[in-house]
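User: Sequence recovery, please. Input:
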């Protein structure tokens, strides 16, 4: 829409404060209650996420809702195998025992499973902006996921990102276009409990560090 005939939103101090709370209370969730997420809630969240920015306005994300129990069981198997390998890679290091105690997915409990892929050559966007950096398509999909993460939190729905998976096997098991790249497997559902600190911090795996550690000036 290209018109001046609109009223711009006026984000109030209350909204700003709520937004800060949203960012502080968004969590990666691995402990879900079993009650379902109503379809209309999920649809609304996906509509909101679909407003995310994308290179050339290409909206290259492709979202697969995985409901079929056999496919879900296949994904769980792929995760468990990948997790065993990841665990073994820690060997006898200091972190090995701690890794084994972490819960790194809520695949069995989460009522909603979404797999996110990216189309490497979407017609939409006509290639704009991605000639030198094709990876911007994947970045766009990640922006969509982050938008979904925040929108879900507002509705009380938790999201857990599972990446301990073999991406090629996930594409096969979900029978998607072989040219698509796998970006993320997302578990959604109502969290058992809400927290304002990451689970990896609470479990003493990795705490957040100050922003100043990550800012450079040139
Ligand atoms: C790209 C990406 C991949 C992730 N993969 C996993 C995963 O496989 N398993 C998991 O438990 N958490 C995963 N996470 C969640 C992170 O562990 C989590 O975001 C981080 O510990 C900070 O916690 P918070 O999201 O609650 O702030 C992933 C997050 C991102 C952004």
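Assistant: Recovered sequence (218 residues):
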């Amino acid at each position: 829409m290209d018109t001046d005939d609109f009223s711009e939103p006026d984000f109030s101090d209350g909204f700003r404060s709520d937004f800060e709370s949203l960012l502080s209370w968004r969590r990666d969730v691995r402990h879900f209650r079993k009650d379902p997420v109503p379809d209309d809630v999920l649809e609304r969240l996906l509509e909101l996420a679909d407003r995310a920015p994308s290179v050339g306005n290409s909206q290259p994300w492709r979202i697969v809702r995985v409901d079929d129990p056999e496919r879900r069981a296949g994904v769980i198997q792929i995760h468990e195998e990948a997790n065993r390998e990841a665990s073994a890679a820690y060997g006898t290091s200091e972190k090995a025992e701690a890794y084994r105690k972490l819960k790194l997915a809520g695949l069995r409990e989460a009522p909603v499973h979404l797999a996110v892929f990216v189309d490497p050559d979407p017609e939409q966007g006509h290639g704009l902006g991605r000639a030198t950096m094709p990876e911007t398509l994947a970045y766009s999909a990640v922006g969509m996921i982050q938008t979904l993460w925040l929108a879900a939190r507002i509705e009380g729905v938790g999201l857990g990102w599972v990446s301990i998976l073999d991406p090629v096997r996930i594409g096969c098991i979900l029978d998607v276009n072989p040219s698509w790249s796998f970006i993320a497997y997302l578990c959604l559902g109502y969290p058992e409990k809400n927290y304002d600190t990451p689970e990896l911090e609470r479990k003493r795996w990795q705490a957040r560090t100050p922003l100043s550690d990550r800012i450079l000036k040139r």
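Residues 28-194 form a domain with the NADH Oxidase fold (CATH 3.40.109.10).
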